[in-house]
Amino acid sequence: MNKRVLMKGNEVIAEAAVRAGCRHYFGYPITPQTEIMHYMARRMVEAGGVMVQAESEVAAINMVYGASAAGARVLTTSSSPGISLKQEGFSYIAGAELPAVVVNIVRGGPGLGGILPAQGDYFQATKGGGHGDYRNIVLAPASVQELYELTVEAFNLADRYRMLTMILGDGTLGQMMEPVAFREEEPIDSSDKPWAVTGFKAAEREHNTIQSIYIEADDLEALNNRLQDKYQIIRQQEVRSEQVNCENADVIVAAFGTCSRICRNVIRDAAALGIHVGLVRPITLWPFPDAAVVSAADQSSVQAVLTVELNAGQMVEDVRLAVNGLKPVYFHGRTGGNMPTQKEILDKIRSIVGR
Amino acid sequence: MEMTVLIAGFGGQGVLSAGKFVATAALMEGREVSWLPSYGPEMRGGTANCSIILSDQSIGSPILNQTDVLIALNNPSLDKFSPMVKSGGLIIVDESLVKSVPNRQDVRLIAIPASDMASEAGNMTFATVILLGAFSACTSSIQRETFEKALLESLPERHHHLIPQEMDLFDQGAAYAGQS
Known about the structure:
The structure holds two protein chains of two kinds.
Chain A: E1 5-8, H1 9-19, E2 24-27, H2 34-47, E3 50-53, H3 57-69, E4 74-78, H4 80-85, H5 87-95, E5 100-106, H6 122-127, E6 137-139, H7 144-161, E7 164-170, H8 171-175, E8 177-180, H9 217-237, E9 241-244, E10 251-254, H10 257-272, E11 277-282, E12 284-286, H11 290-297, E13 304-309, H12 315-323, E14 329-333, H13 342-353
Parallel strand pairs in A: 2-3, 2-4, 4-5, 5-7, 6-7, 10-11, 10-13, 13-14
Antiparallel strand pairs in A: 1-8, 6-12, 9-11
Helix pairs in contact in A: 1-2, 1-7, 3-5, 10-13, 11-12
Chain B: E1 2-10, H1 15-28, E2 32-37, E3 47-55, E4 67-72, H2 75-81, E5 85-94, E6 108-112, H3 114-121, H4 127-139, H5 144-154, H6 163-179
Parallel strand pairs in B: 1-4, 4-5, 5-6
Antiparallel strand pairs in B: 1-3, 2-3
């Protein structure tokens, strides 16, 4: 590891992408993530890559489709309203089985909303947003160091499974500075892409095509079956989460990203009152870490599960599905860019345990 | 040991940079740090602030609900954030710009005419360095030489010739705090 340097979350995402071998960036500016694009404008020149400020988010995601089809490691980034505009492209990328990395530094919605941090795009990110039966891998970092590591990992996952991998952050993570230590060398998977459209080389291989249109029912069903098989493998192999202080807890809190950091402080606050709080932090939002939630919730000491989010209650639905009636599941959330305070969360926990 | 610092003022006063100097210096001293700016629809003349946490342990939430230290460079910031200062905490104000101070007997208040001193030195943006000198003297949270190194690392090279003068003002801020 190199020495730790102080960097902004957004800039770390961009630097991580360059280190992961990304040489194609297409985007359109929007607060609170424009620093990614700003950084790329300079860094891509140094690295011999391409940074294009597209005419719109729709154009940017279709440039991603093109670059990915040609075998490039490619990135686009935006924030909530811009990510909505890209959804059609996400669906086409899923249908064409193209690798791509997308970063959503979430701001408050709906509509143009505001520019402050939120997690209101959880449903959109994990349940689709574009049309059709598809999934994206969704990673939820909680620190600047993790923004770096998961951005590199996103490129590996995207290439390994030929699918869109999203980093779901929020305005706080994008705007804050924390120390980050970069590795000397990144763990980059082989980027051999025999399927890429790199110009017809008759003597060397079959003609490659990239498409998401299948007119015949059997052909389209075959694609869907292939996608679902792939998603099943990902559910088995790529689930990640962190458990903090869960053993013999009175209450399990489930939270991701910035919200999980507020909850870390609540663990300490609750301990001072003699209440044992554990935290399950999903790192992959899709695939969701059901098993980690269940193993924490199913302890005899646990009275209830509390999900805390910067929205009106989205991940809590996945928590309820996982817990499946084993324990009561409560929710606390704030919206609009407001953050739940430690005291609010602690009060909710106290009302649950009755002390 | 964890210390939280909130630096607030008008956009353009160097509030965000001041926070960055503190965070950079603390990182150089081997501590954990976080720096979180306000990033609302700010503009020149609007308000700006940043929250810094310095800790010996990994940092949980970077968001402050209360703070050990407030450095306020204007009245609106002081009025808005002084209730967040913990009992026994520290408030440092730029007396040149702050006309009324909060009535709090439970905190230490240091008032320094930092903007007037900076103006005399020929550069208004030096005011934050004077206030950080006072912060350093009152809290012993960053060493003088580390702060100087942090300036060297954070400032673009074209401003490096100003660093000796800034350190002189840093010392004046520290001395001022020592007397009050």
